[in-house]
Design goal:
alpha+beta; Conserved Hypothetical Protein Mth637, Chain: A; UPF0235 protein G1H10_23350; YggU-like_sf
Length: 89
């Protein structure tokens, strides 16, 4: 299943949850240098969904804040819960 995410690099408090338009928000501490923020976002999403990092695959947006990722179909319920989280968390 594909999911659009919006990465916020350099955040004080890392989190996964909330919406930015139709995208899931992933805030990471790593800066957007040499792909560090992207790798951290993949890891954070995998951890939040309870799957392995190799189960989450970047499809598009390697150098953009808006990315498209493939996640396992079995993570649909967890993903819905992340989208439902309040933006203030």
């Amino acid at each position: 299943m594909r999911v659009t995410v919006r990465v916020k690099p350099g955040s004080k408090s890392p989190r996964v949850g909330g919406r930015y338009g139709d995208a899931l928000v992933i805030a990471v501490r790593e800066r957007a240098v040499d792909g560090k923020a992207t790798r951290a976002a993949v890891a954070a999403l995998a951890d939040a969904l309870g799957c392995t990092r190799r189960d989450v695959r970047l499809v598009a947006g390697e150098t953009s804040r808006t990315k498209i990722m493939d996640v396992p179909e079995s993570a649909a319920a967890a993903l819905a819960g992340l989208f439902a989280r309040d933006e203030a968390n």
